[in-house]
Amino acid sequence: xxxxxxxxxxxxxxxxxxxxxxxxxxxxxxxLATVVWSGSFVAARALxxxxxxxxxxxxxxxxAILVVTPFAARATWRQRHLIRRHLGFVVLAxxxxxxxxxxxxxxxxxxxxxxxxxxxxxxxPVVMALYERFGGARLGARRVTGMAIACVGVxxxxxxxxxxxxxxxxxxWMFAAALGFASYSALLxxxxxxxxxxxxxxxxxxxxxxxxxPVYVADLAVHGGFEPTVGTVGPLVYxxxxxxxxxxxxxNKAVSLIGAARAGVIYHLQPVCVALLxxxxxxxxxxxxxxxxxxxxxxxVALSSATGARGxxxxxxxxxx
Length: 321
Fold this sequence. Notes:
mainly alpha, 0% strand, single chain
């Protein structure tokens, strides 16, 4: 009996890799979320001269809450004690991912192009990697090199071909938005066990909109409301229904199927999607410099993420890191 025990030690519990079919479906869901989120930058740019940023963000989440309520309200009520127990975590995630991030995206859309917004956001994995390093994870030489290449691409993009001595206001707002998104993404790794994905999403929508409410009221008093037309309501419905409800649900499911590292690789296609959408819908031109910067950013984040994805895959199948 002892010989058997020696030859067959108790296996260590590890997360099993997703089946081939599930992995393929997860990739499609991650791609769906990425494409839809790319459209939200175009929508933010389209609203820049008609709807104040805070009001756009507030109504986005009101629309999202109305859409998700029939599917999530009952389960959220059942898990209310768990939400109350982890209230600090849920509120912080709501502040970063709902209240701050999307408001900053709308603010950036006032003075920078949708293409710039998408490409600056593509560098957010650099900040996520730094969070991992602060948490004790080791960053290999290839990953650090990839992050450096992506940063150079972003700086050349916003500096119009040279390292910028001064950044535009819209670019600065977008960098702040990227920091908020990276912080939110890092926080997601600590989501309390037992708190369902849809419930967590719905709770962050509610708390995020609630925190925006006083700012919305103040902004309404200063700037007044906006005129509800096809040009204003249409983009708000898009970001409320598709960019908020559909994309977040698709992304959460994708991460559960293929893991955050592999889903993150798909997310890096976002600047390409934004550039194509902004060209088709807003008439924004992508010149040779913009294409070169896009190549640098995508090459850098691909190099960085490929290393992280392989390491994450080794952990999932129980191999030594």
